[in-house]
Design a protein that fits this description.
With about 325 residues, the chain is mainly α. It is about 55% helix and about 5% strand. A hairpin with a 2-residue loop joins strand 2 and strand 3.
Length: about 325
């Protein structure tokens, strides 16, 4: 889920597009719809959490009586795709128990999913909901400095804002975004919706994509505070897969990392391993609504392995046009 929000800080932006070449070619049947109900929208983008699964998440121990009912109702509504109604329940919980971080991150996730489901051309509405997601996740962290899901969803919200506000906005916040993932992973969260959806695994996955997509230019840390590293990305995705096996998105990311590593380090054996990983992804049963999109891009990568570093989950982003002077200018603001 949350698939590569991370295109050089989620560079699948519309603003700032003059700096990067973005290829989002998709067959018509896989393109985004205009509904924010998940039963009709494919939900391109960072589909980090699968709330389509059957069942019900465990009610946090802090909620009792009516509050427990609100949590369960919000959970069921989100799984049914009724995102606005779901967010209302979790907002009510935030109002009744502002000292409990759980409802903050569930509210942030709801706002993120509303924004992500909106058509790309509705930029102002998307920014509005990404801002709401960012604010609720931040409040959750302020309420509980150990809320790892809050860190994951603040990262996701900032990624969404990078996609809508543009490359330069993302570059200015790169260090903070990676820091959120580092802090969340260090907390070793145990929350999971089901056996294929773990907060810790999703944090590792998000960091793997980040580390693959951000270039490994030696001067980059002096400009935006971070740089890519495919060796560390490979370690992250293997940690994610150890926690949650047979996820199409994780398997495709493994393949993309190996392809990218093979290209950057001139290691043809890595490219062969990446192609095999991508072929295996085509055999994994569907879990997320975005899996069909991931499989489509897996086929593209098998045919065009040179695109491994540029894969974003929403297409391919060529960062080779980014100039050091543009980044310096962006981060100086």
């Amino acid at each position: 889920m949350l698939t590569a929000l991370i295109a050089l800080l989620l560079l699948s932006a519309t603003a700032g597009a003059e700096l990067v070449a973005v290829d989002r070619t998709l067959p018509a049947h896989l393109q985004r719809g205009g509904s924010v109900r998940l039963d009709t929208d494919i939900g391109l983008g960072l589909d980090i959490d699968n709330t389509d699964a059957d069942g019900e998440s465990e009610v946090p121990a802090e909620y009792e009586g009516r509050q427990a009912d609100l949590w369960s109702e919000g959970d069921r509504l989100e799984r049914a795709g009724a995102l606005y109604e779901s967010v209302q329940r979790f907002e009510a919980l935030v109002s009744e128990r502002p000292d409990v971080s759980a409802a903050y991150w569930r509210t942030a996730r709801g706002y993120w999913r509303i924004a992500d489901a909106l058509p790309r051309e509705e930029q102002e509405r998307r920014i509005e909901y990404f801002d709401l997601a960012d604010a609720r996740a931040r409040e959750g962290i302020e309420t509980d400095s150990g809320c790892a899901p809050c860190m994951l969803w603040k990262y996701a919200a900032m990624g969404g804002l990078s996609m809508t506000r543009g490359f330069m906005w993302g570059a200015r916040h790169a260090r903070e975004m990676l820091g959120l993932l580092d802090r969340g992973i260090a907390l070793k969260p145990t929350y999971r919706d089901d056996d294929k959806n773990s907060t810790l695994a999703n944090l590792y996955y998000a960091r793997a994509v980040f580390r693959r997509m951000v270039p490994d230019w030696f001067w980059l840390p002096w400009v935006i505070g971070v740089k890519g590293n495919t060796e560390l990305a490979l370690l992250d995705i293997r940690n994610a897969m150890a926690l949650t096996a047979d996820r199409v998105d994780y398997q495709v990311e493994l393949g993309a990392i190996l392809l990218c590593q093979g290209k950057r380090k001139k290691q043809p054996e890595r490219i062969d391993q990446g192609v095999e990983a991508l072929k295996y992804a085509l055999t994994i049963p569907t879990y997320l609504r975005t899996d069909e999109i991931e499989r489509y891009y897996a086929k593209v990568l098998v045919d065009q392995p040179e695109k491994g570093c540029a894969y974003s989950g929403e297409g391919f982003i060529d960062v080779n046009k980014v100039k050091r002077s543009d980044l310096v200018s962006a981060t100086a603001k």
